[in-house]
Amino acid sequence: MKQAPFLLVAVGTIAALVFLIAPAPGRADGEPAPIFVTEIPQGYRDWTWISSAHEAGNLKSIGAVLGNDVAVKAYREGKLPFPDGTIIAALHYHYVPSAENNKVFGQAQSFVPGAPTNVQFMVKDSTKYAATGGWGFGHFADGKAGAAAFMKTCFPCHEKAQASDLVFTHYAP
Amino acid sequence: MKQAPFLLVAVGTIAALVFLIAPAPGRADGEPAPIFVTEIPQGYRDWTWISSAHEAGNLKSIGAVLGNDVAVKAYREGKLPFPDGTIIAALHYHYVPSAENNKVFGQAQSFVPGAPTNVQFMVKDSTKYAATGGWGFGHFADGKAGAAAFMKTCFPCHEKAQASDLVFTHYAP
């Protein structure tokens, strides 16, 4: 019993040290932890349109990719890798037929965004996100950030797009 | 021969008068002529994204609808009819599969914009375009304005969207 107070202090000190020297929260093995984008970048809905896309298969999604000024400048100048400060936003919606448009066209041909599903971000910060190619990945559904297990799937997939600095979307002229 | 000079002046004067009183170029029957947008509005590629769409059928198109500040403010406030000064741009591209994305996904599911096909505009000016619901319609392919016969097809179709002031596209949140 005599040693208990010292032990508590020691444990507390070690815990504090681990916290301070750990390269990122959530990991204690000394390896850099993946860091995800945990806050929705301000004002992204006003950013410049880069392109649209429809994903069939399981996603059944339609949406747009928007970029902040740094992103759009880099895209237009064909500058790779994207510079720090680049933020790219992908706005996804359910892919639905437009009954309204189809009535006018006289046939089922028009597909538009339905309810929003999620918004995803790629934030370039070559220091902060060094462990994931310089990109921080974000995913928000109903304003809530994606769980860590899900977020770990972003980088391995984007990593395949080496030729375009991990970014899939091309600029639509 | 004595009257010839007077006749020329008279014809010239009448021609000038017809030009001045004619409601629009190209028509001399006194009826208001349809007027189309003949110049591409400046800076439209930087405007705010309103929505995306895919048109199947004969169009096989994917694209985006962008709006100038007046348009976007009206959309966000749910303000109808759209005020004068509104300009809405529809950027259309060939609807093509992305071999690059599909390779990563491991299946054919990704559809993106290919080469541009045309850019269309709706310009709100309730005076200038009174004959077509207050909207001037524009269509440009390779920078060239659509022929008059083609342009006459815009209004009869858009007129069917009475509930949304002749505009088909809804704002994607």
Model description:
Two copies of one chain form a homodimer. Chain A is an alpha+beta fold and 173 residues long. Chain A folds into two domains: 1-33, no CATH class; 34-164, Chalcone isomerase (3-Layer(bba) Sandwich). In chain A, 25% of the residues lie in helices and 29% in strands. The first copy, chain A, has five helices and six strands, in the order αββαβαβββαα. Chain A has helices at 4-21, 69-77, 99-105, 148-151, 154-158, and strands at residues 48-55, 61-67, 87-97, 110-124, 135-141, 144-145. The first copy, chain A, has a six-stranded antiparallel sheet with strand order 1-2-3-4-5-6. In chain A, strand 5 and strand 6 form a beta hairpin. Chain A is globular, with a radius of gyration of 21 Å. Chain A binds chain B through residues 46-49, 51-59, 62-64, 66, 91, 93, 95, 98, 100-101, 103-105, 107-113, 116, 157, 160-161, 168-170, 172-173, and chain B through 46-49, 51-59, 62-64, 66, 91, 93, 95, 98, 100-101, 103-105, 107-113, 116, 157, 160-161, 168-170, 172-173. Strand 4 (110-124) of chain A pairs antiparallel with strand 1 (48-55) of chain B, so a sheet runs across the interface.
